[in-house]
Amino acid sequence: MISFMLKRLSVAVAAVAFATAAFAQDYPKRPITMIVPFAAGGTSDVIARAVAEQMGIALGQTIVIENVAGAGGSTALARASRAEPDGYTIAIGNAGTNAASYTIYPKLPFTPESFVPIAMVAKTFGIIALRKDFPAKDLKEFIAYAKANPGKINLGHAGVGSSNYLICKSFVTSAGIDATLVGYRGAAPALTDAVGSQIDGVCDAAASVSQAINEKLVKGLVVGSTVRLATLPDLPTSAEAGLPEFEAQGWNGLFAPKGTPPAVIAKLNAAARTAVETDAVKKRFADLSTVAPDANEHAPELLQQLVTRDVEKYRKMLADDAKQ
């Protein structure tokens, strides 16, 4: 009897494996949706659109961008976690949405295990930019002004839990200042308010704020990088500005719902690798001061390691936020 049952189980397992392989071989048969956790125009959105276009070409199907803003990206990730694990719904995320959020929002309807990593697609650099009429010409003067006016400076970000929020937290902690951090539904609306002098400044990634700095719509204060950015050669690094403790180098990666077949993940990973190596994406990234992963940084396992590392990192950094 036991032998008979084992044979039936083996047949069932083989049948599932065969069906999965056949599904993956035909994948994708229709357009794929890529969920972006923020409003259009922000860093994640710009990167997603550049990568999605080239991934779609590699896969032979269109990848449709769906912007789902709210709760620092958690609204979008909740939607992605509930999607059918068939490879037709994926999401782009970062250290904020896929690591810090678990500390900031401890009752989320998803966990790190709710997602399967596909590939890291970009490395980003955080910048602090101020409204063009702010009364400080460099970081030293800004910190002095902030300390003389505790709680009166407001810096916009893409929502609590977003990578831009983490840039803000790292900056104010490193600078030892008391500033009000204002959350928006994405980086773009925060930048719009900074351009209009509705807020004092923004914590943003180079990908979405570089153009505004170059057009003098806002003034760059500092970049949390070890080297100056080619698109912003006059913007000092944190060390050059006198605040080496401020580090803001992040990542963007693609994720699929738990249960997505490994063969489908492999196809998506291959398409992502191809996409970031195209001249079109390289040029777009260069324009945005964003860097594509190195050849040895594309594996899903590496993205998983980044998530695991940053979950612990931000659990410590954001402990006070979790208590509120």
From TrEMBL:
Keyword Signal (UniProt): yes
Keyword field: Signal
Signal peptide from the UniProt entry: 1-24
Keyword rRNA-binding belongs to the record: no
Domain of life assignment: Bacteria
InterPro entries the UniProt entry points to: BUG, Bug_dom1
Stored SUPFAM superfamilies: Periplasmic binding protein-like II
Gene3D superfamilies linked to this entry: Bordetella uptake gene, domain 1, Periplasmic binding protein-like II
PANTHER family found in the cross-reference section: BLR1237 PROTEIN, TRICARBOXYLATE-BINDING PROTEIN
The family this protein is said to belong to: Belongs to the UPF0065 (bug) family.
Official protein name in the record: Tripartite tricarboxylate transporter substrate binding protein BugD
